[in-house]
Design goal:
Radius of gyration: 23 Å
Number of strands: 18
CATH topology of the largest domain: Carbamate kinase
Helix content: 25-40%
Bound molecules: adenosine-5'-diphosphate, aspartic acid, magnesium ion
Largest sheet: 8 strands, mixed
CATH architecture of the largest domain: 3-Layer(aba) Sandwich
Structural class: alpha/beta
CATH class of the largest domain: Alpha Beta
Length: 408
Amino acid sequence: MKFGGTSVADAACIKRVAARIVDTYRSGHPVVAVVSARGDTTDELIELAREISENPPEREMDMLLSTGERISAALVAMAIHDLGHDAISLTGSQAGILTDTAHMKAKIVDIKPHRVQRALDEDKIVLVAGFQGVSTNQEVTTLGRGGSDTTAVALAAALGADVCEIYTDVDGVYTTDPRMVPQARKISVISYEEMLEMAATGAKVLMLRSVEFGRRFGVAIHVRSSFTDAPGTWIKDEENMEQAIVSGVSYTLDDAKVTIYHVPDRPGVAARVFSALADASVNVDMIIQNVSEGGKSDISFTVGETDLPVVHAVLDGMREELGFDEVSTDTDTAKVSIVGAGMKTHPGVAATMFRVLADNDINIEMISTSSIKISCVIGKAHVQKAVQALHDAFQLERENIQRDEVFG
Ligand code: ADP
Ligand code: ASP
Ligand code: MG
């Protein structure tokens, strides 16, 4: 069971979570519960660090941020004790979560859950502080925003759990962010493949890497409300699962577009630029290279806004070697995406998406596709309109729509 920040925001919430865990335990299921930092704690700690230092060392950021989850784990354990059950809270490190050394975006490389298993064998309820681990250099690391989801799914895989329940402040995965589109509809079952694309394109209800773990190890994930008992959304693979042409619309607001002007058009240049960015742990999303003129071309790509300082440092270091002119950045960009496994076999989905954006006077700056996803970079100001219009056009508020109703 994993409980997100809103679910453990205050004392009353923490007691309710404790009661829910104890109920599950009493119905005959040993429980490992992963908890996030309370409410906005992580944001507040980041802000606090900023007040102290402009550029805090990432190691110290991890020491700081990992405390948020430890507070929650200890408090929930106390509440469970008060309900008459034995419980023990563990840090990520104590729970055996081993990561690589990339501070603030560490990847889990192994899980050795001996202590968790021993505590379960002793009939204890185990609380694990989410979002953190210990690196191969014995340093405390954090897994990136939303990382408690990944802790939970990875632990579920390592322990061979029956299910990984993600308790959050919405009652499942919706056709789009229900906070943006009120008509969004709860999806009852979705494949790993589609959920991966939804998470990768911004549906932050699950962290991308948690879905990757789920798929790799076949963990059934159930996203549900921590405030009601209603069934939520199952993420799993089933034979004969119905394939919607479009299952969901997602968006991101934290992208930045970088353009390098007049890059020499010869073999190896793109490899050089993008390996240097990869070595600096920068995730590049879309890439466009323009038609070359006079042996030079422009390359544009998108990255997360927070990576911009690193991108600039990397590119500055290569300017002379590669001989490009200028680098420009645009942070007024956002990305809207539609995801659906049925796209593979149905032509015309991209055309419909572009038509809907055009009808709403929204200019498309970049496009990228996979077999089950189409993403467009647009101006930030148009996101709400774009998401709403796409949700309407593909009639996602309705279940079981027929292809002819959307495509005519
Ligand atoms: P937690 O703190 O429990 O981890 P998050 O804030 O990380 O919760 O994720 C839940 C939020 O994700 C919801 O409140 C909702 O606004 C947002 N969200 C974005 N896209 C979707 C979607 N397709 N379905 C459900 N929630 C979504
Ligand atoms: N507390 C961390 C965050 O806010 C991790 C998580 O909630 O999953 O990103
Ligand atoms: Mg989250």
